[in-house]
Amino acid sequence: MATLAISTASSGHAQVPAAPQSTIWRFMGIPQGLQKIRDVTINRRGNHPNLERKPPLKRIGDPANLESTNPAIKAAAEIKVAEDMKAQKIKAIKFLAKMGCGCYDKEGKITDALIAAMDDCTPDVRLAAIEAIGTTASGECCSKCGSTSCCSEKVTKRLSEIAYERDDSGCHLEPSAEIRKAAADALCICCPNRATGPIEEDVPEETLPEPTKEPETISGEGETGGEAIQGEGGEAAGNSAESVEDNADADSEEEKKKKNAAGDDTTVIDTATEVQNLTLFQAAKIETSDVEVGSVKMIGGMAIQPVTISPVTATEDFDAVAAAATVDQASTPISISLSDEVFGSALIDETEPAALPAPIALPIHEANAAPKQSFVPKTVPQKQVVATVIGVDQRTGRVILRSGQAMRPDASVTVYHQYLTGERLIAHLLIKSVNGNVWVAVATDEVGLIKIEAGDRAVCF
Q1: Tens of pLDDT, residues 170-184
Q2: Are 64 and 16 in contact (CB under 8 A)?
């Protein structure tokens, strides 16, 4: 009974250091006396420090090691304690699977505990958590309504990640194939009528509002412009209309004076009709005289100079004048004399062929000493031929390639295999025979031959 009690106490408190085993010799104090004599006599003068008795080694999971200042001892103690708790974790997971995600999972603590167990560093704990989810989904206590099932959205997504997802380097998130298969089986139990494969989330498309473009207002063109150039903005147009009316008023006064001087009888007419008639008269007068547009103004820090526009009237028909000039040139006789130097040189050019310059022959020694142009041949890059592996014979080491391009025997070939992370070089080949568009090559090494598969890309040089 005493032995059973001691073993039970030691298993229930695994973290407490075990006391030294009590024997009859330790009860008599013989080992303690011997250790005391050794400590006093072996290194009494300190000349042999390596012979001193060393302290006994502690367990890795000793509570004293959890407070050690050495990072290695502390990390090892934490990991050892976590690994020693594996059996306790599995026991707790089995109890949660028996209870199910029913009444006790109103706050989601059982679901969160199972998801946390699926992320545990111990593979046995992860496998027990996945099997627990499958047990709750196919429980006999409530198989119709499934109230004890733990197949929530978070759990099914986590099972899909464990079974199918990969990281950026193309490796599985779950390294154990057994756990991935268990996760796929649990996912089929939770969702029996779904297609196999990872669960994809629907990401809503974000529609950005179209930016409203406001028209840019240019100074002088809008109706409310601060300062408009005459003739371009609304106010400028009004100012030009006012200036024309002022000129019309001035002209009307001059006409009245002329009519009074001539003794013509004037009648009182409507003001609007008189202004319109005078405006037309002023426009006709402007067409027959020079017009000065604007005056010197400071606009935007620049001085605008006045512009004078002169009226242009056609006096003669250009085509008729050009035709007359052509007729006069044709009818005018041209006198040519042989004494003219230009004419004489032209006759000489037509009758006598142009004399070529005589070649200059260099002496032999000067020709040899003349610098010669050096010819540097240019290397033309060889065109690469791409082929596809259609068969591999591991026994004879032959590889059959197919390509639509010609290739000569004894050419070197490099084979590339497409991995999830990209294309990599796996083997080197040497072409032995060519039969149309089919080549037979042999591998230069056995390791590369094992990696070659049908469909790989081959590049010939």
Answers
A1: 899 999 999 999 999
A2: no
The residue segments making up the domain with residue 413 are 385-460
In the chain, the N- to C-terminal Cα span, in Å, equals 84
Q: In what helix (H) or strand (E) does residue 387 lie, and over which residues does it extend?
A: strand 385-393
Q: Token digits for 414?
A: 């490099």
State the CB neighbour count (10 A cutoff) for residue 443: 22
Contact 411, 431 (CB under 8 A): yes
pTM to 2 decimals?
0.38
Query: Cα–Cα distances in Å, from 66 out to 63, 78, 94, 343, 418?
Result: 5, 7, 29, 119, 48
- What sign has the CA pseudo-torsion 398, 402, 403, 408? positive
Over residues 88-133, the pLDDT tens digits come to 999 999 999 988 888 888 888 999 999 999 999 999 999 999 999 9
What is the percentage of the chain residues whose pLDDT exceeds 90? 20
Q: Amino acid letter at 110?
A: I
Helix (H/G/I), strand (E/B), else coil: 284: helix
Final residue belonging to a domain, choices 143, 171, 190: 190
So what's the pLDDT on residue 438? Answer: 87
Q: How far apart are CA 416 and CA 455, in angstroms?
A: 10
Q: Which helix (H) or strand (E) holds 271?
A: helix 271-287
**Greatest extent of the chain over all pairs of C-alpha atoms, in Å:** 165
* Residue carrying structure tokens 């669960």: 199
The values of phi and psi at residue 439, to 5°, are: -120, 150
**Nearest-angstrom CA–CA distance, 163 and 172:** 8
Q: Both 88 and 186 in a single domain? A: yes
Q: Is the dihedral of CA 13, 15, 20, 23 positive or negative?
A: positive
97 and 185, same structural domain? yes
CB-neighbour burial class of residue 81 (10 A; exposed 0-12, middle 13-18, buried 19+): middle
Check whether residue 41 and residue 112 sit in a common domain.
no
**Whether residue 57 is found in the same domain as residue 110:** no
CATH number, domain with residue 392: 2.40.10.410
b/e per residue 32-58 (b: at least 16 CB within 10 A): eeeeeeeeeeeeeeeeeeeeeeeeeee
Per DSSP, helices labelled H in 119-203 are 123-137, 153-164, 177-190
Find residue 391's DSSP bridge partners.
Answer: 400
Domain identity same for 48 and 135: no
Same domain, 100 and 171: yes
List, in sequence order, every residue forming a beta bridge with 433; answer none if it has no partner: 440
Q: Are 68 and 104 in contact (CB under 8 A)?
A: no
Domain boundary among 64, 79, 94: 79
Tokens 């081959």 correspond to what residue?
Answer: 458
Tokens of 248: 């019309």
